[in-house]
């Protein structure tokens, strides 16, 4: 249960980070608070769009789904439901893969780092590890 | 469990509040707002190439203009290699920010402020190569600062230059010069003072320069 709680908390923070980047992308926020990073450079590059949509919006959708699944997993009726662990692990794995792709673009193509993207990468990586641990501990059969 | 949900609500409320506060803050004024025009300082534009080149091409350009960006990133590298580096041509860049573009004058100032620290062409390349900023419609102030930092500029000096709009007079003088010469759009070119009517392609410039070079011989 503690792992699912941690996943829910991480997904909520990730959702806030992704929402922040998405609000910037659609013009609701004027400037990103980035310190010495290169947030705006990364966020205005062509790689900040995928299939016509801002990458941050995929983050919002992904974290929101993780949050909803995590919250459902905290309910008594799903607490020992393996299917939920599988769903969480599958979504977190897809998110982790996407995170690796985006980080590689920052490091090797753009040569610029966006602190908020790094924060999201750390959150997604931790979520992935926790989701695998949750899956490992889940009962082999669904009640 | 109750404590956990309270924690979640707390995080959501604080995070949501921060986002709401950020969206309510007054956005920075459009940096392309009308600027006070200082007396022109006699500056005639940054140049590339040999001072002794027989042919001078003057380009009137706008950093926000997509055709200018395309020219700068596709044609200009070839022109630099074949015509400028070989000493045949001296290239002069003049600002002609179009009034329909929200941030082109701001971008022109950014390039001038980089030029103050000896990095005009580097900033010129950054502005044109990373041209996505011109399509977003967003205030590019932070992005241009990042360009400045990436180029190794003294950012405090750059900020002071931008905040004081130190080279607004130069940019305006360049616009007036272009208008006086009949520039209507960007990019526009003048070859040894004469309007160039050909295509904005490196091959066409090369053909013209080769024919002019033969005449000089």
Radius of gyration of chain A: 16 Å
What's the helix count of chain B?
9
Number of DSSP-assigned strands of chain A:
2
> What class would the helix/strand composition of chain A place it in?
mainly alpha
Tell me the distance between the termini of chain A: 16 Å
Overall 3D form of chain A: elongated
What low-confidence regions of chain B span 5 or more consecutive residues with pLDDT below 50?
26-39
The chain-level mean pLDDT of chain A equals 87
Q: What gap, in angstroms, lies between the N and C termini of chain B?
A: 90 Å
Work out the number of β strands of chain B.
5
State mean pLDDT of chain B (0 to 100 scale): 87
Query: What's the gyration radius of chain B in Å?
Result: 22 Å
Which fold name is given in CATH as the topology of chain A?
Answer: de novo design (two linked rop proteins)
Q: How much of the sequence of chain A is in beta strands? A: under 5%
Number of separate domains of chain A: 1
What is the H-and-E element order of chain B? Answer: HEEHEHHHHHHEEH
Q: Helix/strand-derived class of chain B?
A: alpha+beta
Number of helices of chain A: 5
Q: State the assembly state of the protein chains.
A: heterodimer
Q: So, the CATH homologous superfamily of chain A?
A: VKOR domain
Account of the 3D structure:
- The complex is a heterodimer of chains A (about 140) and B (about 220).
- Chain A has helices at about 1-25, 40-45, 55-75, 80-110, 115-135, and strands at about 50, 55.
- Chain A is mainly α and about 140 residues long.
- In chain A, β1 (about 50) and β2 (about 55) form a beta hairpin.
- In chain A, α1 (about 1-25) runs antiparallel to α3 (about 55-75), α3 (about 55-75) runs antiparallel to α4 (about 80-110) and α4 (about 80-110) runs antiparallel to α5.
- The radius of gyration of chain A is 16 Å and the shape is elongated.
- The mean pLDDT of chain A is about 85.
- Chain B has helices at about 1-25, 65-85, 105-115, 120-130, 135, 140-150, 155-165, 170-180, 200-215, and strands at about 45-50, 55-60, 90-95, 190, 195.
- A 5-stranded mixed beta sheet of chain B has the order 1-3-2-4-5.
- The longest helix of chain B is centred in the first third of the chain and has 23 residues, at about 1-25.
- The model of chain B is unreliable at about 25-40 (pLDDT under 50).
- The chains are: A mainly alpha (about 140), B alpha+beta (about 220).
- At the A-B interface, α1 and α2 of A face α1 and α6 of B.
């Amino acid at each position: 249960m503690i792992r699912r709680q941690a996943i829910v908390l991480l997904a909520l923070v990730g959702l806030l980070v992704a929402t922040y980047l998405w609000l910037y992308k659609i013009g609701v926020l004027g400037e990103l608070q980035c310190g010495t990073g290169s947030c705006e450079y990364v966020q205005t590059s062509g790689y900040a769009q995928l299939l016509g949509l801002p990458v941050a919006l995929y983050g919002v959708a992904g974290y929101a789904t993780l949050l909803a699944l995590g919250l459902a997993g905290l309910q008594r009726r799903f607490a020992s439901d393996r299917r939920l662990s599988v769903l969480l692990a599958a979504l977190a794995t897809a998110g982790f893969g996407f995170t690796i792709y985006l980080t590689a673009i920052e490091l090797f193509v753009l040569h610029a780092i966006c602190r908020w993207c790094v924060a999201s990468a750390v959150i997604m990586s931790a979520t992935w590890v926790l989701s695998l641990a949750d899956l490992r501990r889940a009962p082999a059969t669904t009640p | 469990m109750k404590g956990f949900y309270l924690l979640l609500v707390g995080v959501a409320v604080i995070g949501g509040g921060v986002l709401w506060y950020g969206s309510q803050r007054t956005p920075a004024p459009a940096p392309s707002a009308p600027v006070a025009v200082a007396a022109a300082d006699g500056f005639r534009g940054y140049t590339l190439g040999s001072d002794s080149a027989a042919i001078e091409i003057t380009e009137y350009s706008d950093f926000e203009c997509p055709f200018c960006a395309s020219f700068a990133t596709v044609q200009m590298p070839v022109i630099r290699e074949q015509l400028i580096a070989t000493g045949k041509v001296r290239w002069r860049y003049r600002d002609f920010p179009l009034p329909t573009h929200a941030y082109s004058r701001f971008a022109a100032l950014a390039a001038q402020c980089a030029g103050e620290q000896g990095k005009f062409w580097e900033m010129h390349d950054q502005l044109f190569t990373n041209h996505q900023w011109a399509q977003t419609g967003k205030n590019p102030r932070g992005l241009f600062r990042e360009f400045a930092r990436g180029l190794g500029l003294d950012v405090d000096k750059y900020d002071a230059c931008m905040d004081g709009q130190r080279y607004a007079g130069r940019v305006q003088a360049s616009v007036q010069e272009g208008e006086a010469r009949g520039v209507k759009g960007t990019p526009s070119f003048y070859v040894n003072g004469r309007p160039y009517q050909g295509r904005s392609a490196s091959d066409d410039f090369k053909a013209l320069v080769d024919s002019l070079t033969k005449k000089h011989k």
